[in-house]
Task: structure prediction
Amino acid sequence: MTLPIWDNVLYMPGDVIAAWIMMLLVGPILLLWLSKTKKWPLVWEYMRTTNHRKIGSMYVLFGFLFFLRGGIDALLMRTQLAVPENNFWVFQGDKYNEVFSTHGTMMIFFAAMPLLIGLMNIAVPLQIGARDMAFPFLNAVSFWMFLAGGMLFNMAFFLDSSPNAGWTAYTPLSTDTYTQTEGNDYYLFALQVSGLGTTLTAVNMIVTILRHRAPGMKWNRMPLFPWATLVTSLLILVAFPVLTIALFLLMFERLFDTSFFSGEAGNPVYWQHLFWIFGHPEVYILALPAFGIFSDVISTFSRKKVFGYTAMVLSLCLIGFLGFMVWAHHMFTVGLGPMANTFFAITTMLIAIPTGIKVFNWLFTMRNGVVRFTVPMLFALAFIPTFVMGGVTGVMLSVAAADMQFHDTHFVVAHFHYTIIGSTILGVFAGIYYWYPKITGKLLDRRLGIWHLGLFITGFHLTFFLMHITGLNGMPRRTYTYQWGENLFAFNFISTIGAFLMGAGMAVFIWNIIRTRQSGDHAGADPWQGRTLEWLVSSPAPEHPFTKQPVVDQRDAFWYAKQAGRRMAAGTDSRPAPIAGKTIQPLCIGAILWLLSLSMIYQWWILAVLSGVLVLVMFLLRTWRDERINTIGKEGTADE
Amino acid sequence: MKKAWIVLLLLLNGCQIRTLNPHSQVAGDQAMLIYLSFAIMIVVMAVVFVLLIRFAWKYKQTAKNKDDVPEEINSNKRLEIMWTLFPVLLLAILAVPTVVVTYHVSPESRNGTDNAAANEAAIHIQVTAERYDWTFTYENGKQSNRLVLPVGEQAILHLQSEDVIHSFWVPELGGKQDVIPGKEILFEVTPDKTGTFLGKCAEFCGVNHALMRFDTDVLQEKAYRNWLQEE
Result:
């Protein structure tokens, strides 16, 4: 659509205009609602909070909003692909490319990651008996950096400059020679800012788990979700800096005409190596926390300890380690030569072994137990077959010679949706249903939960199972159309129906949240007959849980204390706890980084330098402040 | 679930899935690997599905056992060793043909002493990918946007890109091979049956990536010679 503005003619695609109109309608209604219900003090409170549960809740909230945005992108794509040679709305050519680039980036970096990090924030400190994250201020900085990146990324769409080189942004397509618009600069800076936030979170998680476990919680007594979080954080700490470097190189390439990925000295394949050295561990960064959640859920609702605990921990570590040795299996068709191809084929196959061990341990945790079909457990029961199907296609893809047929087709699309939705997304929902009492104090409705799962998982298999076949039948990914004679129509049409069923499932989930808010049951401290320490504190989790840390004398100590009808002993060891505080600084840091990115994207150098200096000053100021000096003395006496 | 797989198998045989309808040695090997890995993976899935359904059903909470606290069983060496070694065995069965075929089909990028490049007996065709078209240049200088190959003869395609990364893919002839700017990659193929196939670019390359298709004809030797002489 073209809009005449004074003497200029501005071209705006219909979907962007629709989004603007929606925002201008919904925005004021939201503001009005906040004023009407007197929510502004609450908003102000959350803007300054450093509490792990509140930050975690914000991660989950915004992660979920971005998940919806990515989901709408998916529905737009599926509608365009429903019939051959379709011309749905504006979604052909570059517009379609923007939609799938946004969908991928959004789902990985701004939905799956924050949803998991949010749940880690909420649950991990409670599960290990800590009073908060080790560095509450840093935790808030991480969150606002993620949000700054997320906002930046979403803004691109409203300015009609979404990235259009795929979420993998392969060079040379993503260099300014072939994609001149600002879209891929938005991609670079959004990922850079939120990625740094993620790296800082990893540091925070590692220190929290190393230093703030309850007395007596040895490594072999720690629940599996904190274990998964620890391994994941170590993966982030190694993998994300590689992404940071890759993004910096591409930034120099796009803004300052270097030639790392082009010309005589450069090579476009370097980007693929860097991206996948980050990108493959990223897959496990998404999967391992979900494994942790399911381990806890399956154990709780089978009323048994996790089967083969040691094997579970070792396989987590092994998967994490092997995750760094398989990146070139994304590059079997690049022509790295027979030696590299076979090496990476074999290492990829090896990952199946620890993963298989985990699956069998989950199954045997249920064996001889008492299996309760609660909503989180039903998600776990849906996870196992779904993830195993993704796993077996993973092994099929590792067969390098066969992968040359699978590569970059819908077969691969099916595979990674089976693994990521199968583990991460089902895991996140299981976690939300499971820990919802700790977040809000209420239990989500079971009947609606079952509808949510039923619609979502049915739609999921309809959508993605058939993609295996369309892929084998010659449908490359990232194409906006196909022809009538290609025998692809029926499968694609059913896929589209499935996608809308998944959308319906999400609508039920949102309805569940709203209904529970209005009329849900208040949950007690321990609504699920839990085994781990988070069920010891009241629901929702208080700002200062564990004023005296409980003494942990075995794995699942809380459960055995309940069985024996005794209370858990309180510890005497008063290790200095992290200091909670209220501060607006983290939000400011996020906002300035947002401004810095924006001025870099549009090359307003003076503003860029100014905001760069400002953010540095903010960090320097912070290093001179230490609220522990005042508080620790006081708390030491107040505690004992 | 089992029914779904039977339906899938019927579909795979019924409607001529293109990657499983090979017209060359390489595509045949790849189809064999796809079938083999699929069969092995069906075994894995069957085991997991049966155990899952059995355990979930047998140990579900009922009015009778709802207050029971089950006996703790933390590990079982024999079982754990079994489900570690069983996958190792299955993967070993899969790994051997994988290594053999992968060594055979992985192309090397061109360097001076390359055997394939110097192969006089084979037909050499220059393939140029440029957004969003394929151009095939034959030995007599003829240029076309169709790939035409004689059946039963070895053809060596010299893949080159003028701009971004593309990927050359004709599912029936095996594949696929990325086409990378600044580098010539050789793709060898010996079609063993005649036919007409759709080729596609399989690496996302920009606005009209979806339209970057080409037709491939595998003809009898004589028909190929005739076509080559046509203007």
